[in-house]
Amino acid sequence: MEVIMAWLLLLVAGALEIVWAYFLKQSAGFSRLTPSAITVVAMIGSFGLLALAMRTLPLGTAYTIWTGIGAVGAFVVGIVVLGEALTPLRVLAAVLIVSGLVLMKVSTPA
Question: What residue numbers bound the domain in which 66 lies?
Answer without folding.
Answer: 2-106
